[in-house]
Here is the input.
Amino acid sequence: MKIYKYNNKNNLYDDVLKLYINEINNNPKINLGLATGSTPIPLYERLINSYKEGKVSFKDVTGINLDEYIGISRDHFQSYYNFMYNQLFKHIDINLENTYIPKDEKSIEEFQGILNTHKIDLQLLGIGSNGHIGFNEPGSSFESNTHVVLLDEKTRTDNQRFFNSLDEVPTHAVTMGIKDILEAKMIVVIATGDNKSDAVSKMVDGEVTESLPASVLQKHPNVHLFIDKDAGKLLKGEYKYED
Ligand code: PGA
Here is the structure.
């Protein structure tokens, strides 16, 4: 795992942007594994600006999302379908027919088929404060493919900020499995903020265990972890700070 630690969050996202522009321009038909939540937003804003400045095109890019809530419709303001459209897709030249987001339990087979025919070149991941990746909660099998999960209460309370109340946060979701995530050729993980520091330290320095799903990333040969100083404050190693 390559670790890049930043004092300044803007510089962190600027460097992730450079990596993305490079990868997309080197492979315009790239299959991008996409994520939702707060973490990707500054990257998506930068990608939109770069597209508007003519530095990158998504014309031939395929986007495959990690996960989706179950129990809210696609037009609900907090569905990940809606999130992707509003935070990224509607602002760029991606062909919506080349975007795939899991939908519900009935869509699992179809979504798994997409994963089996579209190898992800570059997977973006945030990390939950409980160490989840996608919605693979603690205890998820490392051998899992796309499946339905019961959301951890920690995840529901973390995500309550996006809803009007905890009651409105869905209890279930559908997610790409850990086995699927590990199939990606390259993985970029971004973590910022103090509330991620415990999960980040267990992911990097802890034992590889299904009770901390992100720890499995220690086994992947091409993971790039971008963290700010708050998220990285419990790491054991000495890391040079980028600005
Ligand atoms: P966040 O979520 O980016 O909203 O903190 C990350 C995650 O749960 O994977």
About this structure: The chain has a mean pLDDT of 97. Helices lie at 9-26, 41-52, 80-87, 108-117, 153-159, 178-182, 197-205. Residues 37-39, 126-128 surround 2-phosphoglycolic acid (CB under 6 Å).
